[in-house]
Design brief:
CATH class of the largest domain: Mainly Alpha
Structural class: alpha+beta
Mean pLDDT: 80
CATH architecture of the largest domain: Orthogonal Bundle
CATH topology of the largest domain: Hypothetical protein af1432
Number of helices: 31
Low-confidence stretches: 153-167, 249-256, 694-731
Number of domains: 6
Shape: globular
Distance between the termini: 61 Å
Largest sheet: 7 strands, mixed
Strand content: 15-25%
Number of strands: 27
Length: about 800
């Protein structure tokens, strides 16, 4: 069976646009091949050259077998082909082979009497479309030619939404929903209230899509949320109702727009009145009472502007949300330029919803509006990075974030969304720059998008949590941002036509940290992302790593103070490296080699060598053995690093760790400790000589920095990346960066703290704008006096 599987995978991989998926996710492709079945109507994808040959010979001639694909499989995997042959398999006479639910036909396959139509897959270039039609005319094949942006059969509606097309979409309520809505109707009727009760927005959308939702927001006509909740509190027989009751005011503190929330049968229900709004210079509108039409029109997307009337039990659509939901289109109720200018945060919400639903597409006019200079200017002026943060993080954990990220990049909105000072200093081409590397097939944008796509798929395949998948997608997004910095780019030593990006991972990690900090991402999540970005190059040179190098990498992958909590962070770094390699030159990716490296390192992590990530001799004992040196000189750390290296390479036997607790284990441990101490005494003369004279020799490892650009074009071989090794005539980087928040270290806790922002760094000078209760003041510091600065300035 295994041999047969390989045979059919080989057939599938011969299709150009299936090659990557078959190579990287063979089991997923085979599962989809079996499960995404359809009727007798099948698809054969081809390009212009294939089409000419097929129509001339009136047959599909391949080596041994001709696979025909189901409509759904074609929609998922074959969209990049410009042409689809739509074939009715009922009349195919040649022998077929069934492979676990998939069907392959013996080659050649006669297409006479079975070819239903030829579909030109839009959008294609007009010239290409004309050539296709000309080929069909010349062939004299009497087959319909259709131009379409959907594969036949897929333009039909989602089965869950078939009821929408009939004009009477119904929502099936669960038990608790029915109970809540009946209760609310009883309250309304009991007090004879002149209002309509409607569920608004996301709950309606999700229920129509067949997804559960407990986010119930009740929109009221003619009264505020607080007023209605007061009636609920007065209503008799209110058992299990109203234990928690909150009232919120809108941003303008209008007495007419009070929102209230209350628990009903164990579920929090929010109440707000229908409203209309007017925008001025802020993205916070002036609001007033409105009706259902004005309320629906003010919402971000039509699919979020649907209502469910509790009284009539009908879905109400005032802006075309039902048809957009059926067609999988995200559209704004009003003109998108005006919608985004009024509240530019809706740009991110639109991208986030596109990412969440996966197979929904943004309407073309929305994308055009995002390119509009006025819209982009409104985004800069009205949206704070902190407010954007939650939308961005939700986007990254969506079902398919790639199309949304592509729009963010292609419209240049990413420069405003990731608005940190360093983004103003990137190269002119920005994310769309040519990497000029023999190791990369794509420009930086397409490489980045492919890495995110592959990382997203890997995390799903490994059944990782959505939270960790989102963080790893973020790491994939930012992993090469440092390449856009001009000072990172330098001509390759082996070929001046190519570029090297030495230490780009460090620059990327700094940019990622600044961006994530600016959008309000917590420190713990930032540390995970930054560690993956900073170390993402290491697995690429795994086969060159010594045991010492493996141990050093494992220690670096574990966050200080959180070694146990994030002991498996190395695993995500390997996943990232896999996604990265799959996105450089895809056809050269070696999946077996990748799996071997992962398995080998996993064995190392679980071995005695990998299970101890600290020196077997503690710092106090080392200090006692070399009392002539001051602990502050740094010698203890070097001794411990040398001992750790010995543990990594096996010259200090750590096998006692595999023994059960008891006397024998303790004896073996003491033997290893005594051997380690003898090693310390051997190195003691060298250590004393080095640290007594205060000589931190720049190359005390006695290594010569080698040209890494040929074997490691990104300049990231961790084993040779010690701070003491000289990498070449590269200017030292200042620890201070424009936009960094700092404080004055000289002020004690009894005095008000002064905080500042670095406004300029350059020409060995740094300008800080200090903020205090007395106002703002600017001060210039000399960057060359690093000792003095360390006593003055500290990053917040």
């Amino acid at each position: 069976m295994e041999q047969e599987t390989k045979k059919f995978l080989s057939i599938l991989s011969s299709f150009q646009h299936l090659f990557e998926d078959v190579s990287y996710y063979p089991n997923v492709v085979l599962t989809d091949l079996r499960s995404l079945s359809s009727s007798n109507k099948k698809i054969y994808p081809c390009n212009i050259i294939d089409l000419r040959k097929i129509l001339t010979e009136e047959m599909i001639d391949r080596d041994k077998y001709v696979p025909l694909f189901s409509i759904k499989f074609s929609d998922k995997y074959l969209r990049k082909y410009p042409i689809f042959l739509f074939i009715d398999t009922k009349n195919i006479g040649v022998k077929k082979v069934d492979y676990d639910g998939a069907t392959f036909y013996k080659s050649p396959l006669d297409i006479q009497n079975v070819l239903l139509s030829i579909i030109v897959n839009e959008p294609v270039d007009n010239i290409v479309a004309d050539r296709i039609r000309k080929i069909i005319e010349e062939s004299e094949v009497s087959t319909e030619c259709i131009s379409s942006n959907s594969i036949p059969g897929l333009s039909s509606m989602n089965p869950k939404l078939a009821k929408i097309a009939q004009g009477e979409p119904n929502i099936n309520l669960n038990g608790i929903e029915s109970k809540i809505f009946d209760f609310l109707n009883n309250v309304k009727n009991y007090f004879n209230l002149n209002t309509e009760l409607r569920v608004a927005g996301g709950w309606v959308r999700d229920k129509l899509l067949g997804s559960p939702s407990d986010d119930i927001d009740i929109a009221l006509e003619g009264m505020t949320g607080k007023q209605f909740v007061e009636y609920i509190k007065k209503y008799p027989k209110q058992k299990n109702v109203g234990k928690n009751y909150t009232v919120d005011m809108n941003a303008e503190k209008s007495k007419h727009l009070e929102t209230a929330g209350i628990d009903i049968f164990g579920q929090k229900i929010e109440f707000v009145n229908l409203r209309s709004e007017t925008y001025t210079t802020s993205r916070i509108p002036e609001m007033k009472m409105g009706d259902a039409v004005s309320d629906a029109s003010r919402r971000d997307l039509t699919v979020n502007a649907l209502f469910y009337n509790i009284g009539t039990k009908q879905v109400e659509d005032y802006v075309g949300g039902l048809s957009d939901l059926r067609d999988g289109v995200l559209r704004t109720p009003l003109d998108p330029v005006q919608t985004f200018e009024d509240d530019p945060l809706r740009i991110l919400r639109s991208l986030r919803f596109a990412s969440r639903f996966g197979d929904f597409e943004l309407a073309p006019e929305i994308i055009e509006a995002m390119r509009n200079p006025q819209v982009q200017e409104a985004y800069k002026n009205k949206v704070s990075t902190e407010r954007a943060g939650p939308e961005i993080m939700k986007l990254m954990v969506g079902e398919n974030p790639i199309p949304s990220l592509r729009i963010l990049f292609e419209t240049d909105l990413y420069k405003s969304v990731f608005n940190i000072p360093e983004m103003e200093e990137i190269v002119s081409d920005g994310i769309q720059m040519d990497q000029k590397s023999s190791h990369h097939k794509y420009n930086l944008m397409n490489h980045t998008l492919n890495v995110v796509k592959n990382m997203n798929n890997i995390m799903k395949e490994k059944n990782e949590s959505d939270q960790m998948r989102g963080l790893m997608n973020v790491a994939a997004l930012f992993h090469d941002f440092g390449k856009m910095k001009p000072d990172i780019q330098s001509p390759s030593a082996t070929d001046p036509n190519y570029m090297s990006y030495i230490h780009h991972e460090d620059a990327s990690a700094r940019m990622a940290d600044d961006i994530l900090k600016s959008i309000g991402v917590g420190k713990d999540d930032r540390e995970i992302v930054n560690q993956v970005v900073k170390l993402h190059m290491i697995p690429h040179i795994y086969d060159k790593m010594s045991p010492k190098g493996k141990g050093r990498f494992l220690r670096k992958s574990r966050l200080p103070g959180k070694e146990e909590e994030h002991k498996d962070l190395w695993k995500y770094i390997f996943y990232h490296a896999q996604a990265d390699e799959m996105s450089t030159i895809p056809e050269e990716f070696d999946i077996e080699k990748n799996q071997r490296r992962f398995n080998e390192f996993s064995e190392y992590v679980n071995s005695p060598k990998g299970s101890v990530q600290s020196s077997i001799v503690n710092g106090h004992d080392i200090m006692m053995m070399i009392p002539e040196l001051k602990p502050t000189s740094g010698f203890i750390r070097e001794v411990q690093e040398r001992l750790q290296g010995m543990q990594d390479e096996g010259s200090l036997d750590m096998s006692f760790l595999t023994f059960p607790e008891g006397e024998e284990k303790e004896q073996l441990k003491q033997i290893t400790i005594e051997k380690a101490k003898s090693k310390i005494m051997e190195m003691k003369p060298e250590i004393v000589n080095k640290y007594q004279e205060n000589k931190m020799a720049k190359n005390w490892y006695k290594k010569v920095a080698q040209d890494l650009s040929s074997s490691d074009p990104e300049g990231s071989i961790d084993e040779f990346k010690d701070h003491e090794v000289v990498h070449g005539p590269k200017k030292c980087e200042s620890p201070y960066r424009r936009g960094m928040k700092v404080r004055d270290r000289r002020r004690g806790v009894a005095f008000p703290q002064e905080y500042g922002i670095i406004r300029h760094v350059g020409d060995d000078k740094m300008k800080i704008e200090w903020m205090s209760s007395k106002g703002k003041k600017e001060q210039v510091y000399d960057l060359s006096d690093t000792v003095a600065l360390s006593f003055l300035i500290s990053e917040v």
